[in-house]
Amino acid sequence: MKQVLSDRDEFKLIERICKLRESHPHIKVGEIQRPLVLGGVADGVYEVEVEF
Question: Alpha-carbon distance 17 to 40, whole Å?
Fold first, then answer.
């Protein structure tokens, strides 16, 4: 199952990934995507795709 996790705080997103890893030790984690910037304005959301 694939899932996209997102959060405005990168460290909270990493904490969520660590908690998922405790219950799903073989989880695959993609690269954390930085906030999208359109016209010089960032949306402030970090995203990562996980598969377990």
Answer: 29
Spatial neighbors of 6 by CB under 8 A, at least 6 apart, are: 13, 45, 46, 47, 48
Backbone φ and ψ for 41, nearest 5 degrees, come out as -115, 125
Distance between CA atoms of residues 33 and 10, nearest Å: 10
Would you say 23 and 52 are in contact if contact means Cβ atoms under 8 Å apart?
Answer: no
CA distance 50 to 42: 23
Q: Are 18 and 51 in contact (CB under 8 A)?
A: no
| Per-residue pLDDT reduced to its tens digit, 14-33 | 999 999 999 999 999 999 99
Say what the pTM is: 0.81
